[in-house]
Amino acid sequence: MALNMALLAAHVPSMCHEANVPDFQQDLVKGLKLMKERIREMETDVIVLMSCHFPGTFHHYVDVTPQHRGVMTSVEAPDLISGVYYEYPGDQALGNELVKAGVDAGIPVVGFNDPTYIWDYGTVVPLRYLNPEADIPVISLSVCWAASLEETYQWGRAIGKVLRESGKRTIFISSGALSHNLVRGRHHMPSRSEQAMDNQFIEYLMKSELKDAREMLNQYSRIAGVESGGRHLAALLGVLQPEQKAEFWGYGQSSGSANAILSFIS
Ligand SMILES: [Fe+2]
Fold it and tell me: What residue stretches are annotated with the Extradiol ring-cleavage dioxygenase class III enzyme subunit B domain (predicted)?
């Protein structure tokens, strides 16, 4: 198996600079740092990361650029995230394989190789913790607003198959929140109902009850306003297989959203 691990990762903007992380998000930082060690121990060849803040309108994008480099200022929160330099190698060959697998499955997946493209903070923030040395190649994936959860799940299945059959040691990261009906005030927890749904969804993942998680996601994503409409979770469910063992590494709220670090190892 060359998909060594799948990961649900947080990217809340206040985590971009570690010195600014509030107490109630410290467990997220701890969790990501533990995963950094694991990614290193696994001698990971490639990280494939889908971000809720890379919103393809009609297509699922795959950034196959061989060298990613840029200075990122968040368009949503330029006061919090400004002038963040990043530079990571890419993996054009594996990126192209992902594109082909998506197209072959009848999914509108488009690859692009454009050194002027600037990454979003949902991609950059977790990578600052997970691979601070910036030496592991990265393939950045979008979500797609025109895609249903079912289509995104099928795209996740295609991604998982390519990664499993790859000769490379790969990690799939789904970068996004659980419930996400945002309110002003970073310290606010999700509502009790949202927390109940988050907990149930996490429980399904922890017990590898993936069919139940998938069924729940249809309503949960709407009622709890799950980030990106739940698309990053649908893709994660497509990538996962029931024998992958789940572990929980941290939770933190951010402005009424729920954020968790979960890993799934084959
Ligand atoms: Fe986000």
Answer: 6-249
CB-facing half-sphere around the CA of 201: CA atoms within 13 A: 30
CA of 229 to the centre of ligand 1 (A): 11
- Expressed in angstroms and rounded, the spacing between residue 184 Cα and the centre of ligand 1 is 14
Q: Measuring CA to CA, which residue among 4, 64, 5, 11 is closest to residue 252?
A: 11
Residue 256 Cα to ligand 1 midpoint, Å, equals 12
Domain that holds residue 50: 3-265
Between the CA of 123 and the centroid of ligand 1 the distance, in Å, is: 10
From the CB of residue 170, how many other CB atoms can be counted at a distance below 10 Å?
27
- DSSP characters over 27-42: HHHHHHHHHHHHHHHT
Return per-residue pLDDT of the chain as tens, 266 residues.
Answer: 599 999 999 999 999 999 999 999 999 999 999 999 999 999 999 999 999 999 999 999 999 999 999 999 999 999 999 999 999 999 999 999 999 999 999 999 999 999 999 999 999 999 999 999 999 999 999 999 999 999 999 999 999 999 999 999 999 999 999 999 999 999 999 999 999 999 999 999 999 999 999 999 999 999 999 999 999 999 999 999 999 999 999 999 999 999 999 999 98
Number of domains the chain is built from: 1
Specify the CATH number for the domain of residue 113.
3.40.830.10
Gap from CA of 104 to ligand 1 centroid (Å)? 30
